Amino acid sequence: MPLVEINFDGLVGPSHNYAGLSLGNLASANNAGEVSYPRAAALQGLGKMRHNIALGLTQGLFTPLPRPNPVLLKALGLENIDESDGVQRRLRAAAWSASSMWTANAATVSPAPDTVDGRCHLTAANLVTMPHRSQEWPDTVRQLRLAFANNQSFEVHDAVPPCFGDEGAANHMRMCASHDVPGLEIFVYGTTGGAFPARQHEQASRAVARLHGLNPERCLFVEQASEAIAAGAFHNDVVAVANERVLFTHEQAFADPEGTYAAIRERLPEAEIVVVSASIVSLGDAIRSYLFNAQLLTLPSGEMGLVIPLEAWETPSVRSWLEGHVASNGPIRRVLPVDVRQSMANGGGPACLRLRVVADPATVDPRFLLNEAKLVLVEQVVSEHWPEQIDPADIGSESLARSVIKARAALLEALALPELA
């Protein structure tokens, strides 16, 4: 089977808003209370998908989850809340969150070449550290089991028990000679982050590796640097990203960087490790710009390209480093800025918006794969049905709820996905 990397992007949902629910995510906290623009956000995301298709890459799409979430509202007794109670308002906002757009947190994925049964395994992330995200995984599993229903090619696992926090592919990297051969799977966990929680637990990562039937000799379990978490790197993909033989990382990403690099080289001798020095790009600049929350991709030409947010290109220290790297003939040959400002303002860059799945596209439900005609169709639905803007004070409005529910229903109808209604 021809195995290729498919990037499944989450479409920004019609309830996209800035409620500031994500502790440790600096952009989310800094923009709390701002007016959001769901229509523009979704169109920006679709623009990134079109950009990647134009590069010759295979692109998929996941739909927004049901919002406002009636299951969470009922379970918390929030059908009628006390508007003077700030805690109740935040809990209600959680039920409206569009955070499933960041599909890097949907699941951890191990391609068929790495697994004992020769199938691609996906384990939904439980996301228990953040209340607004912990509600996602049951609906995520429904969508994953629909998209990857071919049981000869895929197995989709429920989330690991909530006693251990799991944040999915945002804390997982895979290195390999090429996507279609056995690789080295790197699981990154945290232990402390000062005032901010370490969201990925080591035992959750080890459980996922066991569920996927991975060869223990081709797995690494690496601790994220506590100073990175404390500085706002709430996921490893804010400070490191890998693709095939290349690891692109900030020097302060890992608790034991030299030990990590040595372990990678021992298991994958052809590894190229590109380290950005803090003396050139500070940890603060790396996190604010989301330099590493980028899509490091193998282009059809065989070159590697880095899809970065405009914010990274506009940060002088980052742009200088990138231009110098390309000029020096480093492994990253093309730098490709994209506009995802609405997502960035809520703390998610190009890498947050996608889940990487190495598979034969013919084994995936075609309703989840994109081409130009389907992109145009989705853009039409978004332009017609997504709210133009949402003020945080609007959260809980019955008229807005009707509008959001109607918008998602229109999308599912357009994509012929009644199973997700």
TrEMBL record:
Pathway participation: Amino-acid degradation; L-arginine degradation via AST pathway; L-glutamate and succinate from L-arginine: step 2/5
Catalytic site positions: E167, H235, C352 (nucleophile)
Gene3D superfamilies recorded: Succinylarginine dihydrolase
Reactions the enzyme catalyzes: N(2)-succinyl-L-arginine + 2 H2O + 2 H(+) = N(2)-succinyl-L-ornithine + 2 NH4(+) + CO2
Its EC number(s): 3.5.3.23
Keywords from the named record: Arginine metabolism, Hydrolase
Keyword Glycoprotein found: no
Pfam families listed in its UniProt record: AstB
Function: Catalyzes the hydrolysis of N(2)-succinylarginine into N(2)-succinylornithine, ammonia and CO(2).
GO biological process, one term: L-arginine catabolic process to succinate
This protein's record includes keyword RNA-binding: no
PANTHER family to which the protein is assigned, alphabetical: N-SUCCINYLARGININE DIHYDROLASE
An annotated Gene Ontology molecular function: N-succinylarginine dihydrolase activity
This protein's name: N-succinylarginine dihydrolase
Superkingdom: Bacteria
Subunit structure: Homodimer.
Gene transcribed to yield this protein: astB
Residues where substrate binds: 19-28, 105, 132-133, 199, 237, 346
Family: Belongs to the succinylarginine dihydrolase family.
UniProt cross-references to HAMAP family, sorted A to Z: AstB
